Amino acid sequence: MAFTQPAIIEGPDNRCMPLFRLLACAVFALAALPLSAQGLPPEVDAALARARIPREAITVLVVDAEGRSAARLSHRAGVPVNPASIAKLATTFAAMDLLGPAFTWATPVHVEGSVRDGTLNGNLYIKGEGDPKLVAERLWLLLRRVQGLGIRTIAGDIVLDRSAFETVAPDPAAFDGEPLRPYNAAPDALLLNFKAVVMTFTPLAGQAQVQVEPPLAGVQAPASVPLTGGECNDWRGGLKADFSDPSRLRFAGGYPASCGERVWPLAYADPRSYAARAIAGLWQQMGGTLTGRVREGQVPAGLPAAFELRSPPLAEIVRDINKFSNNVMAQQLFLTLSLQQKGLGTLEDSREVMRQWWRERVGGGDAPAFGNGSGLSREERITAQQLARLLQTAWASPLMPELMSSLPITGVDGTLRRVRGKVVGQAHLKTGSLSNVAGVAGYVDGASGKRYVLVAIVNHLHAAAARPAIEALIEWTARDR
User: Fold this and answer.
1) Tell me, what's the pLDDT at 169?
2) According to the model, what pLDDT value does residue 39 have?
3) Can you name the CATH fold of 35-102+314-478?
4) pLDDT at position 466
5) What per-residue string of b and e applies to 111-130 under the rule 16 or more CB within 10 Å gives b?
């Protein structure tokens, strides 16, 4: 700890010089120092100790949101750490700042050939331009608009154009060895339904009915599974599912009747074929006929679009990304930055867009080490000081309402809905979680009426056990009287 000579030996009456008063004056001065110089709040220290996490594993910064006063608490705030999903704060604020909160993505549909008696004699092209929310319902709407052109039969192919983003062979198991987890879905210029299969199990007539959405062409699934007794505990394990064959979903077990209706979202085992299967399956379910096949290709130069499907506005997309920490939507947004500026969405170009934006808009020295925009990365690094500066910049921005409304509210919604205690409704915070990362960053309302920026991130093997310490820090920040 370092402090200047006058701060210790000059008291209010300027008579702290005698040696016998030195110790007393030093104690008085230490008590007057901000908490940042003394250490973490006692309740936070105690919670970290219970979790077996050393102080050196946490970085903390609590500052006035308007930047009008010195830090209220600062601990290792200049140390670069892995932020996990807190990285989405930079992606979403930069995107709204660069593109505007009303920005939308287009998915153009091109018709090649003539339409006669309900038959398109040629190919139908669907060009992906990065829409993060082209979910099953909106894909149905797109195909319904195709039918609205008088097309019931396509005497040719449905061609999927993915050329707007760089082609990267996705390995959904590369990050953590969990290829069937929906959060591991890879970005795609034509991202359909997050490449996910949603299975719904409903007890009915002595069996659990199985509904799979969207319908995937060439994929078989049982219509029902047996009902079992007992409590609804590990119901997924009880199904004894086998997803090793992408063309067939198998269940060797049963489903507990006590569970009622449950939903199981799953990343499809063969993500590269997902879009083709989903479009072919849904087109068939809607009564359409395809004489050719669904394949990849590019829209012929000069072929105009018959129509385009527009996404929800960016502000709504950002809300989905931050409230529910949607990784693939964040990566879609990240790649869109370079697509809009350079004509092709690539990771490195988007990183450069982010670095330039940071230098011009946020400032304060070097930019963070950006990854893929979602925080699903082992290489991404940022400091608490950088995050706080970002949040203070956002607070002073006209975009502040959109960003703040996208953040989970403690004890109310999103990834913070389970928080209990005295801070329910008092903080808007983005969460971050990986196997060795846990943290929050955002805004906390103090009891005094003051609003603070809070950043707290743990990088440690036992990071998941740090949640009580982080919640104690949120409470301490809110209790500023």
Assistant:
1) 59
2) 82
3) Beta-lactamase (3.40.710)
4) 97
5) bbeebeeebbebbbbbbbbb
122 vs 15, more confident: 122
Structure tokens that stand for 203 in this block: 């007890």
Domain with CATH 3.40.710.10 in the chain: 35-102+314-478
What pLDDT was estimated at residue 21? Answer: 39
> What confidence tens digit (pLDDT) does each residue in 145-179 have?
999 999 999 999 999 999 999 976 566 555 555 65
Cα–chain center distance at 62: 23
Q: Where in the chain is the domain with CATH 3.50.80.20?
A: 105-311
- The fold adopted by the segment(s) 105-311 is D-tyrosyl-trna(Tyr) Deacylase; Chain: A; (3.50.80)
Confidence at residue 422, expressed as pLDDT on a 0 to 100 scale: 85
